[in-house]
Task: inverse folding
């Protein structure tokens, strides 16, 4: 049983999601059944991912050869500390989002819960697979689920945003296949560690082609991660999506970032000979400008959701900086920041939605409107989220940013990283204080009778679940940092990965 | 044969890219279709072009690489589903937004580029 643990996070949402399309779960009247099933599925996923984390902590990286086709020929699933942690993150975010949707937004479409499951299936698959073409397939699974989820709730704005999102991602998928074809044509393999072995032994002319393929892959992952200059779609798309969907999408950009970490550490990492770290000179300026543009976007936003969308862009830029530093310490800092920023941006999207519900037609736009009904409750939630994302102590954002700042080693790196991250934090504080002041304190005196319903218990519980991660990450900071350190060391240890796959024995 | 193949892929790709840059959803959808055709051909060629040999081990001295064929099949199926989705989505966008522009609204200066027929009527 424990051998099959690696594939369980993929099987549970796959089978669960399919079952939810059948009786007794199908049909508009049976939404209660679907809610129970969705909740049970998430409990199962969280349990599995915790078991998986414990397993990889004890045994090191775990290999699962689907159909018992051995590497490098078969499709290999591979769980190490990094992927197990991200699967855990995905299931936790999914639970928060689903709890929030129980308040009623899941009833706006018949297939909300199955689609969430399929979305997570793609996300878990992308984290667990160790084969580039399989990665493409899981990308498509998560994308087609996200296309339909983005339409959840309907509306003109959603259709317009979805049009851009779908077309961009279809072009991205074509580029992905071009890149895969190029890399396969040169190396003759799609297995990530096997490709790492082959890429170091290429002739100079083939290296050029491999470089072209590798650079195309960066464009694809950059589009998913919303890296400059492919970030324009993100704020408008996330602002248009319904709240639970936007919160779930908080992890989608992180899938792109994870792929950049995985592919460019293993395949084009330190061991790749001439092509070692070939994209790092590109990622440096792009990461910095991504942060700058995200920050400017946050300052210029006219509503809270666009602001949070821009903060997602800032967090992607910060993660890319930790990638560009190219040390296990920086990667570990990035992983901690990834955990925190995913959960907090997710929670902030939920809070923005609750605020919007109580402000009538003004929604979450920064205009003077009626007074928010539950000011104290929502205000506390908002200020915790805002302080965390801006990186103020005592919450996890402070810890995450502090470790990133520490991980910059040389003087030049320190100048860039410190100035950019600290300045963008300051601007984020300004943008969020401005937002909070307008939303909570500037209301029209005349119309104080607020007829809007109170936020439901489900909404509170979903948002609080995600927000609670922040103090928890600080409280257990020691063990979390230790875990991310190990995960980063494992990620950077390419010979170990090749050893786990037993590629050298098989190659001879 | 390689030259012909390369020209096919190149022409399809450049047509696809050009059409994807157009402003109306119809041409963009056609462009995406062409891109996916181009990418299928390209993937197929990544195992080297081979006229004589089948993808069977042991039946002849040399054999074709079977993996690109499997990859292409997968890519065709996925590409087909995605194109079907984008067709439905653009019809929906036409109905919801009242026009078929990718941005959801007619650009203010579109008269410079497109001669409107409705003025004649």
Result:
């Amino acid at each position: 049983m424990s051998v099959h643990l690696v594939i369980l996070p993929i099987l549970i949402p796959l089978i669960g999601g399919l079952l939810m399309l059948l009786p007794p779960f199908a049909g508009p009247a049976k939404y209660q059944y679907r809610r129970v099933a969705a909740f049970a599925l998430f409990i199962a996923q969280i349990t599995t991912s915790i078991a998986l984390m414990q397993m990889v902590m004890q045994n090191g990286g775990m290999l699962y050869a689907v159909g018992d086709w051995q590497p490098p020929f078969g499709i290999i699933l591979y769980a190490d500390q990094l992927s197990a942690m991200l699967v855990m993150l995905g299931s936790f975010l999914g639970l928060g989002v689903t709890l929030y949707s129980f308040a009623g937004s899941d009833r706006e479409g018949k297939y909300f819960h199955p689609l969430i499951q399929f979305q997570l299936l793609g996300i878990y698959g992308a984290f667990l697979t160790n084969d580039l073409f399989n990665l493409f397939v899981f990308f498509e699974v998560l994308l087609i689920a996200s296309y339909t989820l983005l339409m959840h709730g309907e509306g003109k704005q959603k259709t317009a945003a979805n049009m851009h999102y779908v077309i961009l991602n279809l072009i991205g998928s074509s580029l992905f296949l071009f890149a895969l074809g190029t890399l396969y044509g040169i190396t003759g393999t799609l297995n990530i560690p096997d490709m790492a072995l082959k890429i170091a032994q290429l002739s100079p002319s083939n290296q050029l082609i491999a470089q072209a393929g590798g650079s195309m892959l960066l464009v694809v992952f950059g589009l998913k991660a919303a890296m400059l200059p492919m970030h324009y779609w993100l704020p408008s798309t996330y602002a248009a999506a319904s709240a639970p969907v936007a919160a779930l999408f908080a992890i989608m950009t992180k899938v792109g970032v994870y792929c950049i970490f995985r592919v460019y550490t293993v395949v084009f990492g330190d061991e790749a000979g001439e092509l070692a770290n070939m994209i790092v000179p590109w990622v440096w300026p792009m990461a910095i400008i991504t942060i700058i543009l995200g920050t400017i976007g946050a300052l210029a936003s006219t509503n809270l959701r666009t602001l949070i969308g821009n903060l997602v862009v800032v967090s992607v830029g910060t993660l890319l900086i930790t990638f560009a530093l190219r040390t296990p310490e920086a990667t570990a800092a990035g992983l901690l920041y990834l955990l925190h920023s995913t959960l907090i941006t997710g929670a902030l999207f939920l809070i923005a939605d609750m605020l919007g519900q109580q402000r009538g037609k003004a929604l979450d736009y920064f205009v003077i409107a009626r007074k928010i009904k539950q000011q104290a409750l929502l205000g506390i939630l908002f200020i915790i989220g805002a302080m965390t994302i801006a990186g103020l102590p005592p919450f996890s954002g402070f810890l995450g940013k502090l470790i990133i700042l520490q991980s910059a080693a040389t003087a030049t790196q320190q100048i860039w990283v410190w100035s950019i991250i600290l300045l963008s934090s300051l601007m984020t504080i300004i943008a969020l204080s401005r937002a909070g002041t307008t939303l909570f304190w500037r209301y029209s005196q005349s119309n104080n009778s607020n007829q809007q319903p109170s936020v439901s218990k489900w909404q509170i519980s979903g948002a609080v679940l995600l927000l609670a991660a922040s103090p928890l990450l600080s409280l257990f900071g020691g063990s979390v940092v230790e875990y991310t350190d190990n995960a980063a060391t494992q990620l950077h240890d390419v010979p170990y990965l090749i050893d786990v796959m037993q590629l050298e024995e098989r190659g001879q | 044969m390689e030259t012909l193949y390369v020209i096919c892929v190149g022409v399809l790709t450049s047509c696809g890219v050009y059409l994807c840059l157009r402003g109306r959803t119809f041409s963009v959808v056609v462009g995406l279709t062409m891109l996916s055709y181009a990418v299928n051909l390209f993937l197929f060629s990544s195992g080297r072009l081979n006229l004589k040999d089948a993808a069977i081990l042991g039946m002849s001295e040399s054999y074709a690489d079977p993996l690109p064929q499997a990859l292409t099949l997968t890519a065709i199926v996925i590409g087909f589903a995605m194109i079907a989705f984008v067709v439905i989505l653009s019809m929906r966008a036409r109905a919801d937004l009242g026009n078929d522009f990718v941005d959801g609204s007619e650009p203010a200066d579109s008269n410079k580029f497109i001669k409107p027929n409705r003025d004649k009527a």
In short: The interface with chain A takes residues 16, 20, 25, 28, 32, 35-36, 38-39, 42-43, 45-48, 67-68, 71, 74-75, 78-79, 81-83, 85-86, 89-90, 92-93, 96-97, 102-104 of chain B (CB under 8 Å). The radius of gyration of chain B is 20 Å. The helical segments of chain B are 2-20, 25-45, 66-97. DSSP finds three helices and no strands in chain B.
